[in-house]
Amino acid sequence: EVQLQACGGGLVQAGGSLRLSCAASGNTFRNLGMGWFRQAPGKEREFVSAISYSGGYTYYADSVKGRFTISKDNDKNTLYLQMNSLKPEDTAVYYCRNSGGHRGQGTLVTVSS
Questions:
Q1: pLDDT tens for residues 21-66?
Q2: Whole-angstrom distance, CA of residue 93 vs CA of residue 40
Q3: Is residue 98 within 8 Å of residue 32, measured between CB atoms?
Q4: Which residues contact 101 (CB under 8 A, 6 or more apart)?
């Protein structure tokens, strides 16, 4: 069974940066698209970013476009989300998910103003 483990969250000041990682078990990582979602307190889960299985195509929510970069290392079975110019409204639990429907435990990102 595929397991996904996200890490890299933490507390950062507005304008700062964080890099999230999502490590995947199994041997299907390179054949699956991946994505990041987030859920802020009291709000519904929302799409953040996605990447195709090869890494050749990337997609971003308008709210993070130009600030976040998604990438995928198929040799390391790891998904990344580089987050720059963070804003307080980016505060949320961030989850990784693959196109096979597996979702990892989230990692909390808190951006202070």
A1: 999 998 889 999 999 999 999 999 999 999 999 999 999 999 999 9
A2: 6
A3: yes
A4: none
Sheet holding 107-112, edge to edge: 10-13, 107-112, 92-98, 34-39, 46-51, 58-60
Distance CA 28, CA 25 (A): 8
At position 48, the amino acid (one-letter code) is: V
- What backbone torsions phi and psi does residue 55 show, to the nearest 5 degrees? 90, 0
Sheet holding 4-7, edge to edge: 4-7, 18-24, 78-83, 68-73
